[in-house]
Amino acid sequence: TALQESKMNIEFLANSEAVRYLVASKNTEDNLKILRDLSTTVTFAACHNSLRALGIVPSSLLDFVSGVPSGVAELVIKQNEGYAYIKP
């Protein structure tokens, strides 16, 4: 596909309330399937500051989600590496 040929790296970075979408127990089976399928080509990360503020333990996240210390700092780092920031 065109996406595979472009060798594009995509990272979904969740911070603030959005980290809740990456908690395993909060997802339906349909959502879990979609997220697992996406995880083969998309990197998922959650902000540890947000997790701490919301009382979410990192071990409750989906098994393919990595953590970053600060979502805002991660955005700065990624943009400095050439990533584009797309906010829904």
Question: Which terms summarize this structure?
Answer:
88 residues; alpha/beta; three-stranded parallel sheet
Q: What's this model, at a glance?
A:
With 88 residues, the protein is α/β, with parallel strands linked by helices. It has helices at residues 2-6, 29-38, 48-54, 71-80, and strands at 10-14, 42-47, 65-68.
Question: Can you give a write-up of this model?
Answer:
- This protein has helices spanning 2-6, 29-38, 48-54, 71-80; strands spanning 10-14, 42-47, 65-68.
- The protein is of the alpha/beta class and 88 residues long.
- The protein has a 3-stranded parallel beta sheet with strand order 1-2-3.
- Strand 1, helix 2 (29-38) and strand 2 (42-47) form a beta-alpha-beta unit.
- It is globular and about 35 Å long.
- The model has no long low-confidence stretch (mean pLDDT 91).
Topology (SSEs and partners):
Elements lengths: L1 H5 L3 E5 L14 H10 L3 E6 H7 L10 E4 L2 H10 L8
Parallel strand pairs: 1-2, 2-3
